[in-house]
């Protein structure tokens, strides 16, 4: 991920995942030396039974040592080059934080016909990239060094051996991290070890698939896997069942410990400098706005408009926010800096606010409680404030979205408040999405007749993170490219015989982006049959059934199945029909639907009135996961779900019965696409 929600991730050092890596002494170059004495005996490589692929990993050995000096992370890997395509493994790279005690390379060797060739006798790593991720608004400060192994041939073995040493200034006495083995490995030998000195033993936990294979003694743990084969996670299961071949460790006692340790990093910096321009802005907001809600939105808008988003990981900044003064001076900052500034503005206006750590990864809403407590479980920070007697959430990185959320945005359900005395991890119950993330509105004028093209006005409404990303992208485009992109967006929902014009707008009050397009389209009239003179399939008025939920026999079939938690789409179609003679009449086959299958609600209502056929149809997640038995029941219901197409038909005889199809009490009419402000009220998209 890049951009919002990614600026509190642990830094990767020397190819080994670890906690935040930051200063002890500067390390601007790769160093060279012998392997440390604390290492276990070298791991013997295992030749693969089947030599498939461009390269084979014969051995991969990861050992981490915890002591008073921090974390020492060693990795030794031996590859077998099997094809010409595998020669690319000779492009070795080392990535590290120069604020840390950096990497020491012990060996780069080619083994050929029993002879060991010392590559380092002639070659050294060269730094070729001093700042990565600039195009994604990242200032991580990481250095990258590369070595192109000369003379590497097919059939050679390549051995690469290095150690990195890091000590984090913020949590140096409380290390945390994880060691992950590949789930799709080459058929070699793998070892992961965590070793500690007396007094530095962390808590550790292995995923259930390998827990029984971890060996432990008083000074550490070791996991050895020989030719482990591919691990297949259970199909369709919630995210908490996905981690595998992983050992995590943490010296934090509990979530309260994490909360209390991170709290001062934000609290001490959430202060406006006296007499500063920002302090004056806070006073101006107080004068111009009467309610706390108006003031909070004004503060959020000020910070979003004046401070652009840039991830800052320099000088150990993965968890330490920049000061308000520094952020304001340079006019850029990451989620930590924006949170600190927003808290400072709110406090200056007498509004209570606190920082809250969250994880925005897809499917992570229920995942945090299944890991050991550590700061490494979070990738983002929000502000929770008490405004006008209610609790609201604010996110400084959502440029253009100044709404005060009643619940955390983007379906976040687990979070950790930062408090001086510490706080426990909090979990919110799942709530179905209240409004559609996407609404597609079609207005056809087919009154010119069945042999003519119909005029179409199409509106596409986008909400949530997608709308904010689209807005940022569209604003950056020159006019000619903007028109091309908008035409591609419009063409994703209609075939367009002639697309005449397309435009876009953004509603800041509702954080919704709207693409509006107009032109000519073909309703694809069908030939007459015994019952109808002609007919056409009503665009986007047919519901496809859900996919079957099933797993292969080797997987656990008792596990639940996950649904997309934020999924809610709505389609509204209105067609003005050609006039008929007295002996003809229009009918439709869009039957009413209000059914839930597998935790997903399918809703449709339709009518034919005033010379128009109208349909409103939606699909909405009602439960973020279902049990295995509920999945079986959903599978059984799929054969009877036949609603993929709905037709409007011109009958040869007049019809007197009502064409209204609504499967819910209290609704008396089906709204047309053009008569409702769907941005303000999309209630017609869901059953009462």
From TrEMBL:
Check the UniProt entry and state the signal peptide residues, or none: 1-26
- Keyword set includes Signal: yes
Domain DUF3857: from-to ranges: 75-199
**Record-linked InterPro entries:** DUF3857 (IPR024618), Papain-like_cys_pep_sf (IPR038765)
The domain of life for this entry's organism is: Bacteria
Listed A to Z, the keywords are: Signal
Q: What is this protein called?
A: DUF3857 domain-containing transglutaminase family protein
Species name:
Alteraurantiacibacter lauratis
Upper taxonomic classification of the species? Bacteria, Pseudomonadati, Pseudomonadota, Alphaproteobacteria, Sphingomonadales
